[in-house]
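Appendix B. Raw example, untouched.
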Amino acid sequence: MTILSDNLPGDKLQSEHGFAVHVQTSSTSVLFDTGQGAVFSANARSLGIDLESLDLLVLSHGHYDHTGNVAQVLAYNPGIHVHCHPAVLLSRYGVRHGKAFPIGIPDASRAALLSLPADQLHRSAQFHRLTEGVYFSGTIPRVTSFEDTGGNFFLDSTLFHQDTLHDDMALYIVHGDALTVVTGCCHSGIVNTVTHAMSCFPNVRLHTVLGGLHLLNASQERLERTIHALAQLNLTALVLCHCTGSAQGNAVKRALGDIVSLGHTGLQLDFTA
């Protein structure tokens, strides 16, 4: 796995408020999210990752910082198969200074997805296998009492209809007898997400969690309960990316120690050994 877009830069690489991860199996090239802007493709070139050879594109949810380069990826790969939740195409809004501003999938990305042949655009809310060892989480059940979407999100510019972001998806990767969970923003909550992952693979040990945890706006209670839950998982590695939050990430690292690291563009994890 290689991070192509993240909030922190790697050596001679660029950063942005966005997220994208490339996953290479023995036979399949998978892209999870596309970042926000030009950083994504520039970093891919620097890292020697050929965007024209991608087989699958998976979208975690319909926010601009994860779908900004969809049109470019589809232009590189006219035959690529895209997997996403049906709600990815919805219009979405955040709140700044009391006013609505758009945070949904960019128009060019939406148009590119809708232009795909029907057999290449797979809009599903169900857990399913993508390729060898790589799975689409489907809708993640919201079972904890302390986790929320991590902010004020709406489906309309009048800020009337709350957006619960039920299109928030994750990648589940099984390697050997271990399971890795890759999140985009984790609007479903990281505890909900890993609980769902473990229910899908009850006989596989949870090994690594990588991605955004969206703890940036978390209450102290949520942060403490999240840390407590993560501590019970016996993780080998927890890689904090994108929207986790600097202070919140530091609190997680202080509590959980050396298993925790900060993600950055160019970070690679190799599970082939």
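End of appendix B.
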